Amino acid sequence: xxxxxxxxxxxxxxxxxxxxxxxxxxxxxxxxxxxxxxxxxxxxxxxxxxxxxxxxxxxxxxxxxxxxxxxxxxxxxxxxxxxxxxxxxxxxxxxxxxxxxxxxxxxxxxxxxxxxxxxxxxxxxxxxxxxxxxxxxxxxxxxxxxxxxxxxxxxx
Length: 156
Prior knowledge:
The protein has about 160 residues and is of the alpha/beta class. Helix content is about 40%, strand content about 15%. It contains seven helices and four strands, in the order H-H-E-H-E-H-H-E-H-E-H. The chain has helices spanning about 5-10, 25-30, 50-55, 70-80, 85-105, 120-130, 135-145; strands at about 35-40, 65, 110-115, 135. Strands 2-1-3-4 form a four-stranded parallel beta sheet, sandwiched between helices.
């Protein structure tokens, strides 16, 4: 949840700072039709505040947020330090959250998996809801490609 410190962090150093995958939301929103929303799945929606949105330039009207704070297996592992995770159960909980987002708001046109624990489930989410799915690995790959350019060899 470091999005709220994005500006302060970027101002404190002389290198690019990418404090949160929430930085992707304005870009994703602009890729979609103006009537569409970015669905955000996070660990605990209660902790995403207006300051987080403001920190990375998110217009709250462009997003729909859902948290996994009530997902049994995810919560036990993340918040209660359960030592072993049932990966297939967590995958189902994340997929269920994506399905809830898209059924409650059919205008959701893309999904952002905000929590750093969620990228392993991106494929399952995409298969379930048929939408573009972004996460911090998407951001890392994009940023890396801008910082370490390779010679152009055509399109693959």
